[in-house]
Amino acid sequence: MIGLPHYLLLGSFLFCIGVFGVLTRRNAIAVLMSIELMLNAVNINLVAANKFAAADAVTGQLLAVFVIVVAAAEIAVGLALIISIFRQRKSVELNDFNLLKW
Amino acid sequence: MTEFILPNAWLIPFLPFLGFALIALFLHRWPKVSAGVSIALIAAGFIFSLFVASAVFSEPGGAVYEFTTRWLEMSGLKVDMGLLLDPLSAVMLLVVTSIATLVQIYSIGYMKEDPGFASYFAYQSLFAASMLGLVLSNNFGQMFVFWELVGICSYFLIGFWFGLPSAKNAAIKAFVTNRVGDFGFLLGILFLQIIFGTLTFSGLAEAVPAYTNMALMVPVAVLLFLGPMGKSAQFPLHVWLPDAMEGPTPVSALIHAATMVAAGVYLVARAFFIFSSVPEAMTVIAVIGGFTALFAATIALAQNDIKRILAYSTLSQLGYMMMAMGVGAMTAGMFHLTTHAFFKSLLFLGAGSVIHAMAGEQDIWKMGNLSKKMPVTTWTFIIGALALAGIPPLSGFWSKDEILLGAYASGHYGLYILGAFVAFLTAFYMFRLIFVAFFGSNKEGEHAHESPGVMTVPLIILAVAAVFVGFVNSPFMHHLFGEFISHPMGIQPHPSSMIMISSSLIAVAGIVLAWLIYQKEVISHLALRERFKGIHQLLQNKYYMDEFYARMGQIFVYGAAQLMFWFDIHVINAFVDLVARFTGKSGDTLKYTEDGQVQNYALYMVAGALILVVVATMAAVSVIA
Amino acid sequence: MFNISAFSLYDAVFIVIAGVTLLAALGVVLFPNIIYSALSLILTFLGVAAIFFQLNSGFLGVIQILVYAGAISVLILFAVMLLMNTEPGRTNLPTTRLKTLFAGGGITAMLLTALIAAIGFTKWTEFDLPGVDNSVGMLAEAMMGDYIIAFEAAAIMLLTAVVGAILIAKGVQEK
After folding, report:
1. What is the mean pLDDT of residues B474-496?
2. Which one of 1.20.120.50, 3.30.450.20, 1.10.287.3510, 1.25.40.10 gives the CATH number of domain A4-93?
């Protein structure tokens, strides 16, 4: 009974939870964690589509592998940036980083 | 020789054009050679014209030779160039070439010390070429090209003494006024092309009478008539002709008396089949012609410059010719054109002789008793004036009489009476001029000496022509002219002795009145002038038409400029300012989205993604469901 | 969508794993304590790995555990430790600006609705393709074959990221 739509639904929920986290959290690290949630949701979609719609190839899994690679790199750099900012401004609250205001 | 000439009749306009090119490019350094070349070529044109005439008039009713060659062919448009040799063009050829030759010979004497001697002959040749080309064209398009060429030659020649501001302005005025007429003419031609698909006279002559939509032909005919109105100086486009007297007098004789201004009358004759099938257009032509005749004759009464009097006389006679065309007497109109060419150019050349002798003086009141020292000029001038006044048996009598006859016989009694009155005025003002300038009590003219032979011989030749040319359409020669130049729709009424006698008496009465006032001084002309002061002012100032046009021009041109300026400032600039202000305002408003808060930027991005998802879903759903 | 008569073990397992994953995700976002958020994140990663196993991509599941739950989570925890300058229970608070809260919540709800609608309106067809039995081998062949360039690019990107992260974190040395 469980088929592609259900996995896609799971992916959508996860994605939206991640979006909510990105838009409403104060702490920069929490935002990064929410981004990770979004990327995972995408991975679920890709692999589910691969199994249910293109089961004779592994393209979906391949793409998911690359997404994981990129996510890893991104979070490494992101955390390094946050640490660097913390050293300057002694805070990780996003509301305070508004130097690029008009 | 005739067989050679006929298909090569294009040589007749080409030779003078060659003369123009030669003089302009090479020969202008040698003035005498330039003059010689120019005269030789136009004389050759005259001889060729004689051959053409002999061929055309050899058959009863006139032979017609037409030669065409395809000039331009595109899909939907075929343009031919061609020559048309029929009695009408043969007559014009003879008139133009003969008078042009005589005028150029005369100019050797008149323009003797002028520094622009060579370029004068170049322009004269160019004009002759253009006029001859106009006369030989077999279709409207080609004729229009030459029409414009003739106009530009007129500009060159009027403004020949270009250092003189009055000459410059007169040349511009002539060209611009002509342009107004030509605009209407071109529109008419375009209409003809659109409606009938052809512009050749022979093609149209078949197509037009068969055409039934008369309501459309009326504006076309009127538009076509605008060209002759401009070129032949009919009211209200007459204002350029008096000013054109700023040019050298031989130019006035050739262009503004005999040939170019006759081009309009020639066009009406050539396109008579168009005009005669539209009765409303004929009425317009007749009325405008008659009005111009009266209008100009009244102004001539109060002019003091010898050339101006002759210019207004030309205007008046052109009005006569148009009136003749308008009442259907096409033969009479063309006949008057022919006789008028000879005696008017005679009068102008005579006036030129006088001016030359008086060292540039043109005011008749400053001349007097010229007859004493200038007999040849005086008597040829008198012959010309008698011809103009319409005294039998001179040429003017036959032609003017035919016009009056035409008006009477076709039932236009009002125009007949108007024509008779104008004949009276014509005789009066011409002899006013003669009595004041040649026989007056003022003795100033006595020191003048007769002009050299090169100027008097053409005068004599023209005087002979003025006397005898009229006989070709007289009852004695059984209306020979009318046998060749006629149109089925034109009228050739039987001569009426009542009209002949009455017109002669009217002319004599005019001469007698002038004699009484200006020679015998029974009534002092100064007292008359005082008594009718208002009218005299009006006439002397040409009914203030120039001032009126200037004012109209100022109102409309200046007004249009004001309108454009307002539009530019308040509409176009306003629009541009609006765009600029809108950009600034939107920038001012949208800058608040750049608040430095990263999460807000993320919000906008997600909102955008949301819109995309919604749109894609709706598109897919509406496609499926 | 839910056809009760054909309910099988597969479906029950899916529902359990899905539930755990979603709850953990909610925990990531909602806990005010960031340490709790990080730990919930680890649980989410494990849940996703289980989903991968259920979808017959065992290799990917193992990778997920190794990379995400193993390396990235540790990285996050390290960062959290380094940057804690208030008491831990109040480190992951929602934003104070109400407008942002409501806007974010609204947009999220709308997005969720749109996605559910999109999934719901689609007519899903049942494909009947044979599955692969050598997914790792095929993955390896694809990566080294058709997608070699993406592979190399990913490698370079990782190298860049590592070097960059070190440089940025180290900061400028003040002499």
Report:
1. 71
2. 1.10.287.3510
